[in-house]
Amino acid sequence: MQGGYGHDRGHGRGNGRAKGLRGGKLALTGVALAGFALALGAVADVARAQGGGAGGLTLPQNITMLGTASPNFRRATAVVNGDVITGTDVNQRLALIIAANQGRLSPAEIEQLRMQTLRNLIDESLQIQEAKSLEVSVDEAEMDATYARFATETFRQTVPALDAYLAKIGSSPASLKRQIRAELSWQRVLRRNVQPFVNVSQEEVKELLQRLNAAKGTDEYRVGEIFLSATPESRQIVSENARRIYDQLREGASFVAYARQYGESSAKSVGGDLGWLRLGQLPNELATVARDMQPGQMAGPVELRGGFSILYMIDRRKVLTADPRDAVLSLKQITISLPANLTDAQVQARTAEFDKAIKGAGGCGGVGAVAARLGAQVGSNDQIRARDLPAPLQQPILSLAVGQATPPFGSKEDGIQVLMLCGRDDAAASSGPNFDQLMSQIEDERVNKRAQAYLRDLRRDAIIEYN
């Protein structure tokens, strides 16, 4: 077992060690700003000495603006303990969410997301400010390295390509780096102010290991969650916002991205992943829903004490029992193409003929001859785990004996295919976490629970002005 469960509502947190981003943003020192101001003054003196011209233009020294303000004017949306969050900051962060939804958001939905984005930026400001007050810093080299890693691992792009993509959608590298800076700074604050004061006894770990062994063979769930807190006064608004987020997720939005951006549980930084847990570790409302969910399914919003949750079933398994989906398979893929002008009846007839020929192949050794006769293409993979296959194919493949094939699948446009099982190596049973791993996990859970209380204190003491 890995992970427990928790929010601000008193449960243990549910994930292993948080995989926070690393990074920061450039800040001009007071000396640099003073030098910049002197340089501007010198330029102005030269311009006046040359008759007030500016690049060949003749302009008056006393300017009175008669039109509207510049479109580049950065109007403050909030001021957090003196630090400004502008409308541009909100728009650039919001652009990432809009892009993830391919622009399929109504004006009302965008406005709701804008308010949530502002709240997230306020929290980031508080985290960065607390780190600064404790003299916790992030150097530029680490920031650049983290941003580059984020580009390759998350976006699968080079840094210049990611920069161009962000600019294209109306965001910016600075917006993403600000979030990276806040996450890393906050983790360092927790390591200094929280982690040293969290203790886990050996007796606790031994007792948990005993319970884990006693639970061998029972169901365990890896659950993702987006938790939105609500008070009695805000319940209706938060419920509507949760429903909008759920609808956007069903239309293809990234659960991990939304959890990181809008979730309020302690697992926010790892995309809402609560880790492996048993139903008894969830609130009753969530346990009732999760019990019947299959991997890949979502449910919600579920109302519970303190707010609403959207659940995503990442995976299921048996405690300390080998998972059949970890078996390594050797497969052959046989595909036939179909002419575009075939009728549905003709497609069905060709599919039946194909299925009969494959079943008569006599196993993987006879596939080549059958493929040649049918004009089929053959591919193979000798090292693929069952869980890496598309979910609809996993169970049919695992039910096959060596030499058997799946029923045909595909379409007239993409061709008709079957997979034939040529070999299978089953995974060994898991021994579960060892003593040190379990102790580290419990420590992490307690650190993250206290982190939520820490952030609540910062919010309560903050001076925030809105425009």
TrEMBL record:
Residues 218-315 form the PpiC domain. Keywords: Chaperone, Isomerase, Membrane, Periplasm, Rotamase, Signal, Transmembrane, Transmembrane helix. One of its GO terms (molecular function) is isomerase activity. InterPro entries: OMP_Chaperone_SurA (IPR050280), PPIase_dom_sf (IPR046357), PPIase_PpiC (IPR000297), SurA_N (IPR015391), Trigger_fact/SurA_dom_sf (IPR027304). It holds the Pfam family Rotamase. The keyword Repeat does not apply. The chain crosses the membrane at residues 26-44. This is Parvulin-like PPIase.
